[in-house]
């Protein structure tokens, strides 16, 4: 039996940690399911849950077959061309596949919430396959693969030393969230608003009261998933200082979410002015999510105060974008565009100022200025790439009359057409009858 080397033990320990972190990131899908189900009307609950569940399955298959090869297979600066169906990969690439598959599925899941209550299951599954097989993997290759043109960066001479300036997005503020947010906006804009969502003057009408229990439970699960997503992006445990960096990542994530929640609620309270104010849990949760999305770009390289500042600004970004999307009469059922697009864009910009090594507020040199330009360049290209292909896919489906369900289906609810029952309404009505009958029996039993 060959002796066990200390280095082998460390490597296996690292791989084990990242496998656990990757599987925890998959738990975000449960959070999305609860949050989205709590944000739609009961007649569409089974529909949104089915999209979340089956979207994970088809996303895994698509990323295994095609997505991983395009994202991390050797190729050129634009795209990878090897390792389709995970053929001939190393142990390290196996771990990377697990993590990146969860990221790609997260980007696709964002779209289902924004387009909820008026698109069918097949549309979502088709887009989930497209997003995890092509749309997001190509962006991941640009930003994170060794050969990717954004990751390769720009080489400059600084004080007679060669310095490489790379695209800075640590945990997917743009690679995951901007992709999902832009696709969500294009899909919601093309499919059109739900019936009755806007009045004749273009003002928003509340047509769905959130089930706060489900939404809040989903929110807590998503917060836990965000922590795992950020921690799994740092792929080293055996070097001096790694533990402190991981702790700093978690602290930044928590502070970013806290700051985003606080400022979103403060902004909403200011907007209410002298009107009676009621605490809106959806605002608190979405503000928190936006802060966690934003901090992802620089969670490993910002100080805790920087994480809190990024989160606080993200809360305002969320509230402003929510209002803007409504003014455009784009019906985003859960605020996904403001959370993921707004938070992602702000995070990619913020890291160029608050990065402790190359950020403008720390280095303050030519490298900092080029980093700002390089991140903005990458951000614009990612937005244009996602907008073009998502609008192409949704536009074709709209033209073929596959994108939106018929008006009568939308009115009655997607649950009936998909599951041949009125789902939650039937369950709720039967439960109330049984409970009321039981209450009437209790006095007689006591006598």
List the helices and strands and how they pair.
Elements: H1 6-26, H2 28-39, H3 45-72, H4 91-114, H5 121-144, H6 149-152, E1 154-158, E2 161-165, H7 173-191, H8 212-232, H9 242-272, H10 281-295, H11 304-327, H12 336-354, H13 366-399, H14 407-412, H15 414-419, H16 423-446
Antiparallel strand pairs: 1-2
* Strand order within the widest beta sheet: 1-2
- The termini sit apart by 77 Å
Mean pLDDT: 90
Low-confidence stretches: 425-429
**Radius of gyration, taken over Cα atoms and rounded to an integer in Å:** 23 Å
Overall body shape? globular
Number of strands: 2
Taking the sheet with the most strands, its summary is: 2 strands, antiparallel
Structural class, by secondary structure, is: mainly alpha
Give the number of helices.
16
Measured by DSSP, the beta-strand proportion falls in under 5%
H/E element sequence: HHHHHHEEHHHHHHHHHH
How much helix, percentage-wise, in residues?
55-70%
């Amino acid at each position: 039996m060959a002796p066990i080397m200390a280095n082998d033990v460390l490597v296996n320990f690292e791989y084990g940690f990242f496998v656990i972190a990757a599987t925890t990131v998959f738990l975000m899908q449960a959070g999305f399911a609860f949050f989205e189900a709590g944000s739609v009307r009961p007649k569409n609950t089974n529909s949104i849950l089915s999209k979340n569940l089956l979207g994970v399955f088809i996303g895994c298959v698509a990323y295994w077959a095609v997505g991983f090869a395009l994202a991390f297979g050797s190729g050129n600066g634009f795209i990878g061309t090897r390792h389709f169906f995970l053929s001939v990969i190393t142990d390290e690439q196996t771990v990377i596949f697990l993590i990146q598959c969860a990221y790609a599925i997260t980007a696709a899941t964002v779209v289902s919430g924004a387009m909820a209550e008026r698109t069918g299951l097949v549309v979502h599954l088709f887009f989930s396959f497209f997003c995890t097989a092509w749309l997001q993997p190509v962006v991941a290759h640009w930003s994170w693969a060794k050969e990717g043109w954004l990751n390769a960066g720009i080489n400059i001479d600084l004080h007679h030393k060669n310095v490489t300036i790379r695209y800075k997005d640590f945990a997917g503020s743009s690679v995951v969230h901007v992709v999902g947010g832009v696709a969500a906006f294009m899909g919601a804009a093309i499919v059109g608003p739900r019936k009755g969502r806007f009045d004749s003057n273009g003002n928003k009408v509340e047509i769905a009261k959130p089930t706060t229990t489900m939404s809040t439970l989903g929110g807590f699960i998503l917060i836990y998933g965000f922590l795992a997503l950020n921690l799994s992006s740092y792929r080293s445990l055996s070097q001096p200082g790694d533990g402190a960096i991981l702790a700093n990542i978690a602290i930044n994530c928590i502070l970013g979410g806290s700051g985003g929640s606080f400022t979103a609620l403060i902004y909403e309270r200011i907007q209410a002015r002298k009107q009676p104010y009621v605490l809106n849990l959806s605002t608190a949760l979405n503000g928190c999510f936006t802060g966690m999305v934003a901090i992802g770009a620089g969670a490993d390289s910002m100080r805790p105060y920087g994480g809190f500042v990024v989160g606080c600004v993200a809360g305002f970004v969320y509230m402003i974008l929510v209002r803007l999307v409504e003014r455009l009469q784009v019906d985003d059922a859960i605020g996904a565009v403001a959370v993921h697009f707004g938070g992602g864009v702000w995070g990619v910009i913020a890291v160029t100022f608050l990065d402790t090594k190359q950020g403008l507020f720390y280095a303050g040199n030519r490298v900092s200025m080029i980093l700002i330009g390089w991140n903005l360049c990458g951000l614009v290209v990612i937005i244009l790439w996602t907008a073009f292909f998502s609008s192409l896919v949704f536009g074709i489906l709209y033209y073929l009359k596959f994108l939106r369900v018929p008006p009568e289906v939308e009115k009655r609810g997607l649950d009936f057409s998909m599951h041949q029952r009125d789902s939650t309404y039937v369950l709720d009505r039967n439960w109330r009858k049984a409970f009321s009958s039981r209450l009437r029996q209790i006095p007689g039993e006591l006598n």
